[in-house]
Amino acid sequence: MPTPPLAGGTTGPAALRPLLDTVLTALHDGAQQRHGPLPAGGPQTVTDHIHHATHPLIPDHGTGPHHALRTLITALTQGAADPAHPHCTAHLHTPPLALAAAADLAASALNPSMDSWDQAPAASTLETDTTTALAAEIYPHQPHPDALITTGGTEANQLALLLARERHGAIQTLTGANAHHSITRAAWLLGLPEPHTIPAPTGVMDLTALEEALTRLQSPHRALFVTATAGTTDTGQIDPLDDIADLCTTHGAELHIDAAYGGPLLFSPTHRTKIHGLDRAHSVTLDLHKLGWQPASAGILAVPDHHHLHPLHHHAPYLNAHDDTQAGLPDLLGRSLRTTRRPDALKIAVTLQALGRNGLADLIDHTINTAHQLADLITHNPTLDLYRPPTITTVLFRPTNVTDHTVATVRRTLLTTGQAVLGRAHADNRLWLKATLLNPHTTRHDLQTLLDLITHLTHTLQKGNPPR
Q: Which residues cross the membrane (predicted)?
C-alpha cells in the first residue's frame, strides 16, 4: 500500500477533495437509512449493527480509505442521534451550522496545537482576538476583560472554582439546587468542601435562603463563592442575577455565573435583559456548542480582568522557555490546563464574522419563538399539561392525568422506536418530558407532529395495547 497522503501543505486539499466526496455521500446515505432522529431498535440493535458493519476493525490488510470512510461513516450516521432532525430535542445538543463544521475541517487539516506559538502562529492570534471580543461582550465596561477557550461548561466551571481557590485559599461554595452537576464535581476534584446547596423551589435560587446562608457561613478563615445559573439544564430558567449579585456585594462574597446555556442571549436585543447583571460576576461560563450552534467543543470562561488568569501560568522549558518569551514569543501555556488542544476559536470566529450581531440575534430570537410555539400548542391541547412558559428554549410538558411511570414509558418507547428524542426532568414533584429546542429550521408542523406522536402513544399505553 502506498504511503497515505497528508491533509496539510499545498497537496493536502487535492488529497482531501475526493475523500470529502465519499464522506458527504456516506453522511447522506446513513441519514436516509436511519429514517428518523434516532436508530430504531434500542441499544442492543445499534450495537449489533455497528459490530457487524465494522468487523474486523483492525484487519490484517487495510480496506483502503474510501471503503473505510464509506463503511464506518455510513454506519455511524445510521446509528446517530441527529440533532438536525426536528424531533431530536432531548438535550442541549445543538445541530451545528454548516459553516462552523466547514471551519472545523480546516482546523483539523491544519492541526495547530495551541500550547506554543511555533505550533500555532496565526491560530494563537486568532484565539486571542476571539476571546478578547467575547470577553468584551460579557464585560463591556471593563478595560481589560479576558476569556479562555474550554471544552465546555464543565471545564469552564472547574476553572472558575480553581481560580477562586487560588485567589483565596480556603473557599466555601454556595450553589443552587438547580445548578449544573459540574459545580459539585469541581469542588470534589479540587479538594474543596462540598458546596452548600441553596433551595430552588420554583426552579431558581431562593434569595431568602441565600441571604440566610451567606450570613450564617461568613467566616474570617474562608471566602464565600456563590454560583448562579443563567439557563438551567432541567427547565432553562435563569436565576435572579442582579439580586444575587447584590447579596454577594453585601456579604463580601464572590459570584460566578454559569451561563453555558443562556449566555448567548447577550447577542439578542430582545432577550438580553433576561441575563442583566451578568457583568457583575467574577467569572462567567459560556458554551457556544449550545445556543451558539457550534460543533463541540466550544466553551468559554470569561473574567473581568486578564490578571485573574495569572494563576494558570505554567512553565515547561520546551514550550515557553524564559528567553523565548523575553524575546517576544507568546506564552500559551497559561491559556488552559490542557497542553495539546485544538484551535476551537476558528469555527467560533468564522461564525461571528459570517453572521454578525444581527444574524446571531435572528437565530436566537427565532429559536426562542419556536419554543413559545410549542408551548402554545401544548396549552391548547387538552390531553397535555405545560409546566410553565419557556424562559429560553426548554419546554417541559406531560400527558394529562397519567403516572410518572407512563411518562417515562412514553419517552423510552419513542427512543426505542427511533421516532423522537425527548429528555426528562423532575419539577413540582413530577416527571416531565423535556424538549430543548435548538434547531432554527423546526416548523410549527414539526412540533404538531411530535405532539401527535406523544398523544397517540399515550392513548395506546392507557388502553393497555403494546406500542408498535
A: none
